[in-house]
Amino acid sequence: MISSVVKVLGSAALVVLVCLAATGRSDATVFRDRAAFNAASQNLQTIDFETVHIPENVQEVEGVFFSSIGGSAIVVGPNGTKVFRGQSVGEITRVTIFLPPGTTAVGCDQFSTPMILSISTGESVTMDQSNPSTFVGFVSDQPIQTLTVLLDFPEPTPTAFIDNLSFGQARAGNEPPVPQILVTTGAGRAAALDSVTNNSEAFHVLSLHNFATDGHTRVTLFIVGVAFEPTDLPFVKVQAEDQQQHLFDLPCEATARVKNLNWMSQVTVRLPDALAGAGNVNITVTVRGKASNKAPLQID
């Protein structure tokens, strides 16, 4: 399954997606209690809309994209705080939230009833008077591309109100999360930028445009599934595999969250001399013993 998001990182526009192989039928658990949802999830990011300064026609917040059939706005909601409002049109209310790549856990508070919430893997729940909880969460073993809030009865249908939208990954017991390298649409190349020029591949081991005295190019890779902080640097390993299956270590020099996109992490590596002229290589990022997908990168 594929999730995609368009963002501008520095001066370079990247269209990025992460491809995760489906392993059969999806099996998502529905939660009506936020504490239980939190316990089953990890790397959760939450949008509470209090600091969102987009009064009308909300289309994107922190890398999450919204589509509402009747238009949208940030308003003071039924709970007295700022919330996302998806307006109904006659007898139809439909809000679709396009989630970041690698999302396998999503939940929110939803304040109008009745209303049906569903995810792209097929699971759904109806918000009605039979359950006093305003929270709905889903945790899946497959990537969740979208969360949809829908009602097509009665007429007029109520407006949808959404707050505290949380998204992240399913927790696999006590196992650390598995990183996923973002790749570009179409060609499926590793989403990577020169850390100084923000140019994309092909990269050269040596460059005149860098801040280091050694003249070596630094490349930044973009990761989902893990939430990097600078202190995570010792636990990250990046390797390149050439066409003869030789492995090369790429020294990691920095780890961090991506500015304004906290659900995305980045790692900056130095290209070693041994990779000069390597051509097409496969990059792997390993975090605390968990290896990512392989993503191709061109080193000239």
Can you tell me about this structure?
- By secondary structure, the protein is mostly beta strands.
- It folds into 2 domains: 24-170, Jelly Rolls, CATH 2.60.120; 180-299, Immunoglobulins (Immunoglobulin-like, Sandwich), CATH 2.60.40.10.
- The chain has 1 helix and 26 strands.
- The protein has one helix at residues 34-39; strands spanning 2-9, 12-19, 29-31, 41-47, 60-61, 64-68, 72-76, 82-86, 93-98, 105-110, 115-119, 124-127, 135-139, 146-151, 160-170, 180-181, 183-184, 192-194, 218-224, 236-241, 247-250, 252-258, 261-270, 279-287, 290-291, 295-299.
- The strands form 5 sheets. Strands 3, 4, 7, 8, 10, 13 and 15 form a 7-stranded antiparallel sheet that branches. Strands 5-6-9-14-11-12 form a 6-stranded antiparallel sheet, with no helix packed on it. Strands 16, 18, 19, 22 and 23 form a 5-stranded antiparallel sheet that branches.
- The chain is elongated.
Q: What percent of residues adopt helix (DSSP H or I)?
A: under 10%
Percentage of β-strand residues? over 45%
Give a quick account of the main beta sheet: strands, pairing sense, barrel closure: 7 strands, antiparallel
Named at the architecture level, the CATH assignment of the largest domain is Sandwich
Secondary structure topology:
Blueprint: E1 2-9, E2 12-19, E3 29-31, H1 34-39, E4 41-47, E5 60-61, E6 64-68, E7 72-76, E8 82-86, E9 93-98, E10 105-110, E11 115-119, E12 124-127, E13 135-139, E14 146-151, E15 160-170, E16 180-181, E17 183-184, E18 192-194, E19 218-224, E20 236-241, E21 247-250, E22 252-258, E23 261-270, E24 279-287, E25 290-291, E26 295-299
Antiparallel strand pairs: 1-2, 2-17, 3-13, 4-15, 5-6, 6-9, 7-8, 8-15, 9-14, 10-13, 10-15, 11-12, 11-14, 16-19, 18-19, 19-23, 20-21, 20-24, 22-23, 24-25, 24-26
